[in-house]
Amino acid sequence: MGNGEPTERVRVRAREGETELERDDVLAVEEPLEIRILPDGGGPATSFVTTMRTPGNDEELAAGLLFAEGVLEAAGDLRALDRPTDPRIEAELKANVLIATLAPEAFARAGKLQRGTVMGSACGVCGKTSIENVIPADRPPLSSSETVSPEILFRLPERLRERQSLFARTGGLHAAGLFSLAGDLLELREDIGRHNATDKLVGAYLRRGELPLSDRLLMVTGRTGFEIVQKAFAEGIPIVVSVSAPSSLAVALAETGGVTLIGFLRDRRFNVYANPRRVLRSVDPRT
Questions:
Q1: In sequence order, which ranges of 86-149 are alpha helices (DSSP H)?
Q2: Per residue in 80-91, pLDDT tens?
């Protein structure tokens, strides 16, 4: 543990019909990542939040989480992301801590939001409890006129699975994939929490200064909770797709935020729960 690897090998006793044997199994690692914040120009670092995650792409996760929380509004708000340098700190702790140096305005926003709590791997923006808090009154619904055909949607689950290398090894990781509206998988991230996978994905684009993502489609494995829709709204992603069901709050948030929400995408079928105008009605065999 604490070596930064996303998987861990364990010995298990496996039962197959009438046969019992011992064999190795590969598990997804779940470890805490503490995000500390520091004002640009110096000062003490303070703990913002600790989230349970699968190690890997930690800098992207921190950037994406701070963006989703409203601390960051642009790439320039994040001045640096560093591990602790104090030689007295154990290597295992250093591997599970990131210090975010923030622009003054971002640091002030963080101070108003600071939790000092632990987020589980199933928890997204846990502090946000109402649509009014998630979507500010001065943020209009997404108005993107982009559309996607059913035939393109039908192809997405297989394309996502083909790139899920860690899931193939463990069977225990979620994935978030960003697609073009032509069905090309542009980026994929995996984590034990689907919200973490989404934050890693968004953090990659934020750090490259490539937000908003108004001509992209987000697909996640598992159910779609409201935090996934909230993140998509914040990033300007107009279409969110899942192989499973959304929650009632996710649907309400998608309706309010102008996000097209699609669920149960599997076996050439799907349901559109909100803003169906972006899904073409007919299947074009040429797509």
A1: 91-94, 104-113, 131-134
A2: 999 988 877 777
Which residues carry out catalysis? 123
Distance CA 97, CA 93 (A): 6
Closest C-alpha among 230, 187, 189, 211 to residue 73: 211
DSSP 238: -
- Coil, strand or helix at 14: strand
Lookup: tokens for 219: 């697909």
The CA–CA distances, whole Å, from 199 to 12, 58, 152, 225 equal 32, 10, 24, 14
Q: Where are the domains of the chain?
A: 150-278
Measured distance CA(200)–CA(43) in Å, rounded: 27
Label residue 245 exposed, middle or buried (CB < 10 Å: 0-12, 13-18, 19+): middle
Domain 150-278 has CATH 3.40.140.10: yes
Structure tokens at 240: 């969110």
**Tens digits of residue pLDDT in 199-211:** 999 999 999 999 9
Of the chain, the end-to-end C-alpha distance in Å amounts to 46
Q: How many residues does the chain have?
A: 287
Mean pLDDT in order along the chain per 10 residues (287 residues): 73 85 83 93 88 93 93 95 83 87 95 61 48 66 95 95 72 87 95 92 94 95 90 94 94 95 96 97 58
